[in-house]
Write a structure and sequence with these properties.
globular; 2 domains; disordered N terminus; 30% helix; 5-stranded mixed β-sheet; single chain
Length: 314
């Protein structure tokens, strides 16, 4: 079921294969490496022997920093202005004085982010709280579970899913146990929203960067909520299933080799009876914690690697 394979293409180059696609690691085993795949391009670096390492997403960074140079960033909109005449500058100066006088007399209003920034924040909040888009589930399974039918229904649902976040799954249907095993490929914490809205004492609303702890808490809410979202929808499209086991993994860098590896950070056995009325309002971390599950979250918010449930354990 769990298909993870790395193929050495040439010295320092690895081809990583999985059910979700392929990725290349350049500089494999060295202090600095580049991983390119369906999720983007990541630069990895470390100081050998110290345990110090970091990971930066390059494609997003380059688009933000250099986008204008290629015509799709802020710089593209800042076109050269026509040369001003003395008369034009004089008119602007006069208008500026009048405008300043009006502002002085008018009551100062608290600053607020633009509509575009507010919309972006709203979308980010929806992404973090994806569990609120989980759906009601029938409490009773009906009929015999058939692998071919179940996989087709899940595939059709994936094609129509409107989740506010990108994800991928691999499935295995256990007909005799009326159970569906799902490996869930999670988004990376680097791809999570970095900002939040904050209201100051004077009523000013500003966008501020989240602390590292806040980012980890939001990531925890998101990834557990995504498992909840996936399980509820699969229960809905496959009414014959009694249990759904969601084992979620992310990519982390091996400190010894520098390679990016798939690491499972939680595994939860969802049963239909757990999806009670208004369950979406509960914190997904607590919701999953009340079920048969495996995960280990440190006080700092870091989620440690775990061994997922296997079919023979059910």
């Amino acid at each position: 079921m769990r298909f993870r394979k790395s193929v050495k293409v040439a010295k320092g180059v690895k081809l990583n294969l999985s059910k979700t696609g392929a990725s290349f690691t350049l500089g494999s085993g060295s202090p600095i490496s580049l991983n390119v795949g369906s999720k983007g391009a990541y630069l990895n670096w470390s100081i050998p022997g110290t345990g110090v390492y970091d990971r930066v997403r390059l494609d997003t960074l380059l688009k933000d920093k250099l986008g204008g140079v290629f015509g799709f960033g802020k710089a593209a909109a800042d076109e050269a202005e026509p040369e001003e005449t003395k008369e034009t500058r004089s008119e602007k100066k006069s208008a500026s004085k009048k405008s300043s006088a009006k502002k002085t007399n008018a009551k100062k209003e608290p600053a607020r982010p633009s509509d575009e920034e507010m919309e972006a924040i709203a979308q980010e909040i929806a992404l973090i709280n994806v569990h609120q888009q989980a759906i009601d589930v029938s409490k009773t399974a009906k009929g015999a579970l058939k692998a071919e039918t179940a996989e087709r229904e899940i595939e059709d649902w994936l094609g129509e899913s409107e989740a506010p976040i990108e994800f991928a799954i691999q499935t295995e249907v256990l007909e005799d146990k009326k159970t569906i095993m799902i490996d869930l490929d999670l988004p990376e914490i680097e791809d999570m929203p970095q900002n939040k809205l904050t209201e100051l004492a004077d009523g000013t609303i500003k966008i501020k960067k989240k602390t590292q702890k806040e980012q980890r808490e939001d990531y925890r809410t998101c990834v557990f909520g995504l498992g909840e979202y996936v399980a509820s929808h699969v229960f809905a499209v496959v009414p014959q299933a009694e249990k759904i086991v969601v084992s979620a993994y992310t990519q982390r860098r091996d400190e010894k080799t520098g390679d990016n590896l798939d690491v499972f950070i939680y595994s939860v056995i969802f049963e239909r009876s757990a999806f009670k009325k208004d369950y979406q309002e509960k914190d997904p971390y607590e919701f999953c914690g009340d079920l048969t599950s495996r995960f280990y979250v440190l006080a700092s918010g870091v989620m440690k690697e775990i061994a997922p449930f296997e079919a023979e354990e059910l």
